[in-house]
Amino acid sequence: MLERTTMPKTAIHPHYEDTHVKCACGNEFDTRSTHKGAIVVEICSACHPFFTGKQKLVDTAGRIERFRRKFAATDAKKAEIAANDAK
User: Fold this and answer.
1) How far apart are CA 44 and CA 61, in angstroms?
2) pLDDT in tens, 70-84
3) 17-26, 50-59, 63-72 — which is least confidently predicted?
């Protein structure tokens, strides 16, 4: 049986160092990564429904309301133009 004492190529791997990760839910932890600097994520294992077993709504209603407010003025102007054309 062959025994290897060293890796075949030593200088090809990226530098792997400790990294701090911060989630939007407030959870913070340290891990190792090739990424330089801190990592900010939106969902982590502490708040993801797959790991927690709880369903958590992530601002879907707020997005719909924002969309409706954005186009409410446009819809109002279209209705006004249509009313003026009907006269």
Assistant:
1) 22
2) 888 787 788 888 888
3) 50-59
- Distance CA(29)–CA(54), nearest Å, equals 21
The phi, psi pair for 33, rounded to 5°, reads: -160, 165
Q: Residue 59 above 80 pLDDT?
A: no
Question: Which residue, among 13, 11, 18, has the nearest Cα to 35 in the 3D structure?
Answer: 18
Is the full-model pTM beyond 0.85? no
CA distance 26 to 5: 44
Please check whether residue 35 is in contact with residue 17, taking contact to mean a CB–CB distance below 8 angstroms: no
Distance separating alpha carbons of residues 30 and 38, to the nearest angstrom: 9
Tokens of 70: 């954005």
Distance of CA 63 to the CA centre of its chain: 15
Looking at domain 14-53, its CATH architecture is Irregular (4.10)
Q: Any idea what DSSP says for residue 28?
A: E
